[in-house]
Please model this.
Amino acid sequence: MKNFLRLAIAALIMAGATVAAKAQKMDNVSLRLSWYIGGYHAAYYLGKEKGFYQQEGIDLTIHEGRGSANTAQLVAAKTDTFGVSDSSSMMLGAAKGLPIKTIVSLMNGAGFAILMLDDSPIRNAADLKGKRIATSPGDALTQLLPAVLAANKLTREDVHIIMLDPAGKQAALLEKKVDVMLGDVGAQGVILQERGHKIRSLRFGDIGVETIGLIIHTHRDTIKENPDLVRRFVKATVRSWEATKVDPEAAVKSVQAAKPDIPANVVRNQLKTFISLMDTAATKGKPVGYGASADWDRTYKLYAELRGMTTDMKPGDFYTNEFLPKQ
Model:
């Protein structure tokens, strides 16, 4: 009888150990950012620090990016599980066959803008007539410029477009060799101001051309084969952004803990810009990460017309809201 009890107790201990081991098993997941770490990525570091991903059974590794298009390719190759990209890189990549899909529509407005020095006489889009615009060949802003001009009753002949590399256009603006430059209010805009230059902007979305900004995507195989993982990742990510909106300073500190050499004020102002662009009229009152058909339809149309996107896919094929936490 004693031997039986010993065996029973040993079996219970082994069973308990097996359950504990299973409970501790974590899914190794990687998130590739759109660019070098900055304020636009603060929530992922805060969520990891607070244990939101761990509580969903996810051991999250965050990698810096080298551009949205590169991130889309890495996720399509399954090098990374999830990726942060701008909507144009994701849609253009998917239209060309990359097997990726948006699972979180985070930045439903984009930071694309016309940047100028504070002493510029330009106050609205109509004032661009006859002005010199610095931009870089092949980027999304350059491709969208014709739509901005058309939305404000201007033509290509009404402005002087000067193609420069990214560093060159900033130098040209500061030296007043051009009147304005195309850039992102949360990237070049924030960095130039941090360097002591007073900058004003006309955001594309405020002058007639709004597009979706940063989104999170994953491989279509991951959605099909492991929807539970996607759901848990999205839940932790939404929770992370909600916490960031409540306490942005905590998120700033999380970024600095991960990358101490980045100035806190740059992170703070980039994050402030990101939060201000998370919602459009179509997503007001919706949960963090919700993609509105009106925003996706408009973005799809612009990319089809101006960026040469040809595809049989419909706007709704590029994104889903199915993994968002139920309210």
In short: The radius of gyration is 23 Å. The first strand starts at residue 27 and ends at 32.
